[in-house]
Amino acid sequence: MEAFLEDLTAEQLDYTCGAFQEYIAETAEESPNLANGIKEALTICLNEMLDYIGDVPEEDDDEDEDYYSDYDRETARLVSEIKNALESLSNIIV
Q1: Which of 8, 69, 73, 85 could anchor a disulfide with 17, C-beta 3.0 to 4.6 Å?
Q2: What is the pLDDT of residue 72?
Q3: For position 59, what pLDDT does the model report?
């Protein structure tokens, strides 16, 4: 699962995590163990991605725009999306 998620852009990750969250919610009543397993697997993958990415400088409005490369901006978007997905996952009760 992690190898697949690593290749996604922030926007693709948003859609993919949204689909997983929808599937977890739909599956929770019929098969809570499956839903919980998918939730935990996705949570572990996202946390490992955050660990792998490490610290990303945050863009400050007062700083020079040129200081941040396109890579830094995309990585910051990805980190933000991962954190949003993790928060959404933590709110799902199975």
Answers
A1: 85
A2: 80
A3: 54
Nearest to 43 by CA among 82, 7, 74, 13: 82
Query: What is the DSSP annotation of 9-67?
Result: -HHHHHHHHHHHHHHHHHHTTT-HHHHHHHHHHHHHHHHHHHHHH---PPP-TTS-GGG
Tokens of 40: 């935990």
Gyration radius of the chain's alpha carbons:
15
Tokens of 23: 């599937």
Walking along the chain (94 residues) 10 residues at a time, the average pLDDT comes out as: 88 95 94 96 94 71 56 85 94 87
